[in-house]
Each structure stands twice: as C-alpha cells, then as structure tokens.
Design goal:
The chain is built from 12 helices and 19 strands. By secondary structure, it is an alpha/beta fold. Strands 11-6-1-2-3-12 form a 6-stranded mixed beta sheet, with helices on both faces. A hairpin with a 2-residue loop joins strand 1 and strand 2. Helix 2 runs antiparallel to helix 3 (about 100-115) and helix 4 (about 125-135) crosses helix 5 (about 170-175). The N and C termini lie far apart (about 50 Å).
C-alpha cells in the first residue's frame, strides 16, 4: 500500500487480520437485502476494513461475502493484489478503492473473480476490534503458542499458550496475524471466523454485544440500505449458519524489476466455482483424454493411460509426442477448464495447464493425432512416474 507505513498497534495489522468479525458484520448487512433482488448465482458483497497509514486511511483487509439460500461463503482477497485501474494500468486493489471509490473496487473484484459484486461495506479497524471485544472472551483452541511483538516504539507484547483459550478481540487479531508453523494464515482466519460466529450466537440478546453491534453498524459506509440491519442481526445471532471460507491464491510476478502480487487465474476460478457458486465438480468418467509420451521413457503413455483408466477417465488415444524432451508434463485443455483441474489434481506429479494457443507449435504438431471430441491432451514429461 502507499508509503508502506509501519502500523503502531495491532488493530492496524496485516491484511486479513480481522476477517472473522467483518465477515459476520457484513453478513448481517447483506442479509437485510431482499433475497428476491439478490442474485442467486454468485451475488456477492465486497467488505473492506480501513486502518490508519502514514498518509491517511488505507485498506487493511478486503474480501467478498456471497449469500445463498443454503449458506454463505467468505473469501479473503489480498489488498495488494494487482488489478487494472480506470486508466488501464495496474494498481493495487486497496489503492484503487481509496483513490477511485469502493464502487470502482467492486467492479475490479468482479473482473478478478468472475462473479457479480452488488455492493460494498467499509468498516474502521477500531470498530471491528470493539465488536470482537464486546463478544469476548472468545473460546478458541490454539494449535501453537501465539507470541506477538509490535515495533519497538509500539509497546505491544502478547504471549498466549497453546490449547483451549479465552481470547479478547486484540488477542484474536494477534492470533490471525502472527505466523505459525502449525497453521497457515487461511486456516487461522477460518478458525477465528468460526469462533467469532459461535461467540456471536452465544451472546445473542446480551446488552453489551447488542449495543456495540448497533454502534459499529451505524458508522459503516455502504451503498446499500441498512434500515433493517438490527432485526436481521438479532435473527442471525440466534441460528447456526452454513459457511465456506477461502482465500484468493496469488503469486508474485516481476516485470521491469518491479514485483507485483497477481491472482492465480486457474486456482481462483476453481475456488469461486466450489466456494461461491457451490457447483459440483465434474466426475472423471465425463472427461476424455489423449495421452502422449513426451519424456521418452518406455511405455510412459501406456502406464499413464492405465493409471487414469483405473480412476475413471476415458482414454481415447495414446502415442508418442512430437519430441521426447519435455522437461515437465502438460495438460492441454480443449473444452471446459474445470476438466483440466480434475485431471491435474489426479496425476501423481506436477503438470502445467495450458491452452492450445499457449502450447503453440507443439500443439500444432500433435493436433492431427488428437481424435475429435477429446477434452484434454496429456503430454507426459520428465519426472512423471505412474508405477509399474
């Protein structure tokens, strides 16, 4: 983010640190909308938590909440992921919202995720922390000790042992932010969110939590009507919820000496399909595969065919590739991309998914040997072993 400032207190920590509370609060807001007007297939709400930076306010955490008649999905989006701005240049998602407004951020999120984003909610970090404290202490099982140290001039120090603990809002934030060998960041965020939801349900009707929720919701910024927030909050707190939690996978791309965080396209599409759209994945018996030996290892294509047939795939042809010098294996997708995900995840080693255009001259050489109606082409490269 701009200036890359050092936060002075935990409440303005790394992006995603306050996923639990904001997911709950935004769900409260989203549930006030008329479900007849809410898109049933991927209708999604953008949530943002703002914290103090060296040059004003910036996004500490961004995510989306998608509702359906059977439950909800909360997906965290790194605030420093690169998207296209209004001028077509790459800009961090959080900076786009701060500079051009959160409606522009909604449109960028639509392109990033491939789903409609119908509105946004912006909350201040200190309000989220106050809400967590009003619900606390929050019971949660820690798989490893939490030891958090703020910058030397910040004066913040937290030490919490592993096991069943009762955490304050500040301690919950430290748990989510702090690195752990036992749990990855998405796992900690999921655990914190589920603990927050359970605490909210347990505290339903309590004066302190209710009053804090009123105050927090009254200070949020949104392009949606929140007149019915309070009544829905009471209803939500009294019942259980079916919840899916995810995080947009990213990688760092270096161009002209500048590193930018970008979303991994195939993995993001897979996440949205399973978590947000709640669509069942295809089964192997619906997928036809042509297999070529690109490694030169004797019977590589035959063994690959036997391996995949046992697992339900329809192998329509095997043969030798154009060369035997493939350093890696490739899955060339000719029809639906989810079919390529299933094949890649079934293979006993790494493989790269590509389109025919990305495979260029290699695919042109193989194309005459690919039967009509084939969904995928698997080129077995070096290192892919299927056993005897």
């Amino acid at each position: 983010m701009k200036g890359n400032p050092v936060r002075k207190i935990i409440l303005y920590g790394a992006a995603g640190a306050m996923l639990g509370a904001v997911g709950l609060l935004v769900w409260v807001l989203a549930a006030t909308q008329d479900r007849a007007e809410w898109p049933s297939d991927g209708g999604t709400l953008l949530w943002v938590i703002e914290g103090a930076t060296g040059d004003g306010l910036g996004a500490d955490a961004i995510g989306v909440l998608s509702l359906s008649p059977t439950g909800a999905a909360v997906v965290s989006v790194p605030e420093d992921v690169s998207v296209k701005g209004r001028d077509g240049r790459l800009i961090e998602l959080g900076d786009l919202g701060a500079d051009c407004g959160w409606s522009a951020c909604c449109r960028a999120a639509e392109v990033l995720l491939g789903i409609p984003v119908v509105g946004y909610v912006v909350l201040q970090a200190h309000d989220v922390a106050a809400f967590l404290d009003a619900l606390g202490p929050i019971p949660i099982e820690l798989l490893a000790p939490v030891r958090y140290r703020e910058t030397p001039d910040g004066g913040t120090s937290i030490d919490i042992g592993r096991g069943e603990r009762q955490l304050s809002g500040t301690e919950i934030l430290a748990y989510v932010r702090e690195a752990s060998e036992k749990e990855a960041a998405p796992e900690r965020r999921a655990r914190a969110l589920r603990a927050t939801l359970a605490a909210a349900k347990a505290s339903a009707g309590e004066a302190g939590a209710n009053e804090t929720a009123r105050q927090v919701l009254s200070r949020m910024r949104s392009n949606l009507d929140a007149n019915r927030v309070w009544s829905v909050w009471q209803d939500l707190s009294r019942r259980g919820v079916a919840l899916k939690i995810g995080e947009v996978p990213t990688s760092v791309m270096v161009r002209d000496g500048v590193g930018r965080r970008v979303a991994m396209v195939v993995e993001t599409e897979k996440l949205v399909a399973s978590a947000v759209r709640a669509r069942s994945l295809l089964t192997p018996d619906e997928i036809s595969v042509t297999i070529f030996n690109g490694s030169g290892v004797r019977l590589a294509a035959t063994r690959a065919a036997e391996y995949l047939q046992v697992r339900g795939f329809r192998v329509v042809r095997i043969g030798n590739a154009d060369v035997f010098t493939y350093a890696t294996s490739y899955v060339v997708r000719l029809t639906e991309e989810p079919k390529a995900w299933i094949l890649r995840d079934t293979l006993p080693g790494a493989a790269k998914i590509v389109s025919p255009g990305e495979f260029a001259t290699h695919y042109e050489a193989l194309r005459p040997m690919v039967p009509l109606g084939t969904d995928l082409v698997l080129v077995v490269g070096a290192g892919m072993e299927f056993g005897e």
